[in-house]
Request: fold
Amino acid sequence: MKLHRIALAAALALAASAPAFAQGSTRDPGPDPAPAAPVAPAASRVFIVQLAGAPLASYDGRVPGLAATRPAAGARLATRSPSARAYLSFLDQRRAAVLSRVRGVKPLHTYGVTFNGFAAELTPAQISQLLATSDVVAVVPSEVRQLDTVYTADFLGLTQPGGLHTQLDAAARAVKGENVIVGVIDSGIWPESPAFSDKVGANGRPVPYHQPGTQVYGPPPAHWNGTCTTGEGFTTAMCNNKLIGARFFQADFAASGAVRAGLEYLSPREGATSGHGTHTASTAAGNENVPIAAVSGVVTNLMTGIAPRARVAAYKVCWTATVAAQTGCYTSDMLAAIDAAVADGVDVINFSISGTQLFFNDPIEMAFLNATAAGVFVSASAGNSGPGNEVAHMSPWMATVGASTFGRNQGGFLTLGNATVVSGASTNFFGPVTSTLVLGTDVAAAGQATAAATCTANSLDPALAAGRIVVCDVSNNVAATRLAASAEVLRAGGIGAVLTNTASATVANEAHTLPAIHLANTNRAAVRDYIAAQGAAATGTVGLSTNLPGIVAPVMAGFSSRGPNKANANILKPDITAPGSAVVASNRPTLTQAQRDAVVAGTLVPNWTSGSLSGTSMSSPHVAGAAALLRQLYPSWSPAAIKSALTTTNSVVRLSSGATDADRWGYGAGHLAPNGAAIPSLVYDAGVADYGRFLCGVQLSPPAGLGGCQALGSDKPWNLNLSSLTASRVVVSRTLQRTVKNVGPSTATFVASASLPGWTVDVTPSTLTLPPGGQASFEARITRTTAPLIAWTFGSLSWSDGVRTVTSPLSAQALAFGSPVEVADVRSSGRGSRVIPVESSYTGPLTIQPIGLVPAAVNAGQVSTGATQCFSFTVPAGTRFARWQLFNADTQGGQTTDLDLEVFRSANCTGTAVGTSAAGGSDEVVTLEAPVAAAYSARVTGYATPAGGATYSLSAWVVVPGGATTLLARGPSSVYAGGAASVALSWGVAPGARYMGLVDFLDGSSTLVSSTKLLVDNR
Reply:
């Protein structure tokens, strides 16, 4: 099983492009160092087995005698209907028949609602037997993924006059998510938080479930089918008419050999994590007017969830292990939770967990496609690997959310005894503290003077530090270092910590367990000079956290992963951005092991607390909550219609200077503005058949139940009916097709307007008159004029009836000449040919230059779980591209063996990695374009192998002009603007090997305008 890391929260404070042949999922690299690989069981590992046949959510009725269960557009999946029960029984029988053919397989999970199959520990022999069974579609290793106010309700305008929280729905209920169910798949929940209570106290504010109060919620909605699962520290009394369901899934985690950390609970209760699940649940759907309070009792404000009257169902799938590398969220457990959530009847799912960057057919992405078929809206985090191009959850059927700041800059002040005041990052809700101010070196333990300067573990003397505020230098920008420093101050009896940067002006809000403030390097001298002048008389006050003035918002958070979409650049990702930096919401308190054990024993009712977290994990539940508000207003809208409304009525994203941020890859359509989204107008709707045609268009098979590609047909990815219009690699022009639907109350005439710098945009027809519920199609033809080549240009396309305007992002990338990025041939004869299409945006000469073919340098190896092997290579000057590749076909165990590949610009696999591939299985590839001449090395890691290890072969190519040419290319010597042509490739090489080459296309000035790679696999 593989660890996929999306950093949970870069700042936390508790008040207590892939090749087409690759398969599987990809690891989001995150900002932290890669952990060591977990130790896999010797004889078996957990695999997900996908069976033939559609799951309940997308079943179309093709089995004789069994009625279709896929709901009609605008309807919900009826999981308790006779037809649903009959079909699930049929799937059970088919699964039992498969299992009966393979001795000894005991499923950990079975799936039938959003995914058809099961998860089980399997040996290589069992896998072989299953793969030989016609009812088995695929067997893939399970993986591990990681977890990637509330003033934000005010910032989004929900509570302002005219905001959604002040409006009424058709039943005269306030639009606060009434009777909508938000399912939160995460790390559990802290039930003592008033955010999840169905009662209020005498002052009208929510009180914890165990305290007396007045009921303010009726019974769960009629479509709720879920349950409240008990376990360690969690009883049925902790569920109520607000927190209507709670479950936990850990079979895969346990089967991995992982051991739960001491503070974990075998129950839905959140344990040793940062309070992530509690935070996301309360952000999306926590009660309104919940006090922001700490264990100290300090109350600084009130907080409100985005959909405060929505019901909450918690699904715990993420676990903390005693071995850090085994901590995470295991794929088969997550699949079970998605299946259960949809069967339980949730309306919205929030998924603040890492995901694939490359593969639309990843099991989790497919399960969410089927959840969409069931009428469930899915919001997912974009990842915390920014500002790099690392956006996760790239599938068009879900809303992928980036993280931005909002009109709050949480911080605090350090007041020195001489009245000097300096500001910094702080989330101190404990209360202000005043005491003697000392340097770490002044309270050093014996022999620890150097270490005490940075307050490293066990460097301070408790006899000297007790009761004081200790100043600690932090010389790097690593959160763990700062958290360790404040923890050392607490251990030594200090009552406050001042963390001073030695070189950086960047400060961060983090999970300090005592009053603390983080200061920029520009404030360091003032603090140290004051202490030097005053000596033992130096004092300081670390104040309460506050909102610092002068804030420009929203601004994209640096940690938020950016687009374009690596899986297909014609699908805009992220879709939208929402508040994700220093978001305050409910959290769990920090308990000792003894207190945790008392909670399990039932002798302690724990407190609750609030905290600040940062990450796309925090932004995703804002969109989930907003979707719940729209679901209440418009219960018949499809998930795609809700997404369309949310992404066509956005506010501007800014730079810290206040100027408009022109880089759409951070925020997609813009910043969440739910009030505007609730005004019914035009929507871009889509259903599962549309997504099926999209998958066929990118040469992937749609999931069972949607129909095959022959029946569905296929669409170009840029023609999928999304509310964003995105076109990559455009030569001259492209026409994008869309259909809009009037969801307003009356007939209206909409007029189009569009702008895309450096392009002309022609919208046909430019005027649409539609009755309520009426639909019409239009085309937007974009033609390049002055747009720069290669770079992306961003604009918009709007429809307005004079009162309401819906605005879609319009994005395009121009190329002077178009040819396929890569083609492959697998004939074993050694001789072959291919014809590739090309098109041109210029008129003039064309030179075609083939390079290669170059045979692979093959390096044999053997590696076991947790072990690595390093191979060195030389890349000379002038290299056009270098590639290192592992193949399932060359690996013992094939796709059931999990190898990873990293490439370094060094001879011994040290230093900075310049390329990483970490998909499931052993199909891994790293390609470097025009690499600098240097020594390189490739490291193969055995992430999970059979007992005794696995043999493999690493193939490497360094493609340089010159040398023998076995690749020929023939085509036109001149081209015309807007013209298309064909180029014939042919080759003759020795069979039994793999070869790579390149075809360059140059214009009349010998400028390279395009190139196409060729992989010839004669093995």
User: Anything to note?
Assistant: The chain has 17 helices and 57 strands. Residues 1-43, 294-300 have pLDDT under 50 and may be disordered. Residues 683 and 741 are 5 Å apart (CA to CA).
